[in-house]
Amino acid sequence: MTGFPVDDTAVLNALFADSPQSLFVFDAERKVTRYNPAGRGVRGLPAGDVIGHVVDDFVPEFGAGQLRKLIEDALTTGEPLRGRLVRGRAPSDPRRTLAVEVSLFPLPGRNGDVPGLVGVVEDVTERQAAADRLAVLSAVHAAVGSTLEVRTTAEELVHALVPAFADAASVDLLEDGPAGSPRRSGPVPTDVPLRRTAFAPATVETSRKQGDSRPFPFPTPFTQALNDTQARVVQVSADDPWLSADRDGFRPLIAADVRSMIVAPLMARGTVLGLLTLYRNRTDLFEEADLDVARQAAGTASAHLDNARSYRREHTVASALQRRLQPGEMPRLSAVDDARQGRVVRGGGRVGWGG
């Protein structure tokens, strides 16, 4: 039994109707002649905004002209382009950044020319986001812990996270206990000061300056994280009640249009060392999936910070002990005193150099 011949038109209609990928046909002038309306990024756009238009008309902010250049290259060379990664804002949802892989296949003309292209656009946003998160963690592992110096370690952490993962990042550390002893484990009281140890980028205005040591306002996500030792995503808006705990102190945060934060405790051996705070004012807010990155970055840095603090305590103790064991200052004697104390007295009990 033989099947009926397959109608090419029916195949094309099925593809353009049901394909999970975005499909486009471009003419020699780079204008869309047919497309898949259900494709990611153009879903919901009126057909009149797409048909007869070049890509810059209906996705003006997508890929900063990368799509246009790819189309021009394929039309000029007549060679297919496969799997080119492009990022940008989707016109149907400008709040989100899309990552797509673009493939372009020239249509052969009768005279060897290229009358148009078929474009296939695959949404790889989630896959690329996972790859980006792994790249961030790899950068943290590579950068953090090059020394046994606390401030350097904290600065390595914030610079590894900005700007790839966050638009700004800070590290605030609790002071050591009395006489340099380690702090006790458990929740941190709200009145305990934390010292600003690192912040990036340096161009951003903050209410806490490098070296400032004071408690965080209560109640805020910062004091909550110190109390329950849980990392959390915080979506920020100017009317959030917790901002009223220190309206002046949080004014730079609002002025910078911070929209999302992650507050993660830095912990080692059950003891809170401080806080890692990540800030975003980009339209892509932090998600729950980003918490894993923050937790792992904080865990890596905490181990190195704990080692650095242990080294500093041991060095302080060793230096103090060495000073105590050193002999006191030797008295300065004149030449007469030297001679007198070194003279041998015949028949006496004092023994010296002889003279």
Briefly say what this structure is:
By secondary structure, the protein is of the alpha+beta class.
Report on the architecture of this protein:
The chain has two domains: 8-123, PAS domain (Beta-Lactamase, 2-Layer Sandwich), CATH 3.30.450; 129-317, 2-Layer Sandwich (Beta-Lactamase). With 355 residues, the protein is α+β, with helices and mostly antiparallel strands. The longest helix is centred in the C-terminal third of the chain and has 38 residues, at 288-325. The chain is built from nine helices and eleven strands. A hairpin with a 2-residue loop joins strand 3 and strand 4 (93-107). The strands form two sheets. The chain has a six-stranded antiparallel beta sheet, sandwiched between helices. Strands 2-1-5-4-3 form a five-stranded antiparallel beta sheet, with helices on both faces. Helix 4 (125-143) runs antiparallel to helix 5.
Total individual domains: 2
In spatial order, strands of the major sheet run 8-7-6-11-10-9
In terms of per-residue confidence, which ranges show pLDDT below 50 for 5 or more consecutive residues? 343-355
Quote the distance from N terminus to C terminus: 133 Å
Write the layout of secondary structure elements.
Blueprint lengths: L7 H11 L3 E6 L4 E4 L19 H4 L7 H12 L3 E10 L2 E15 L8 E8 L1 H19 L6 H12 L6 E7 L19 E7 L12 E2 L6 H8 L3 E4 L15 H5 L4 E9 L2 E10 L7 H38 L9 H8 L13
Helix pairs in contact: 4-5, 4-8, 5-8
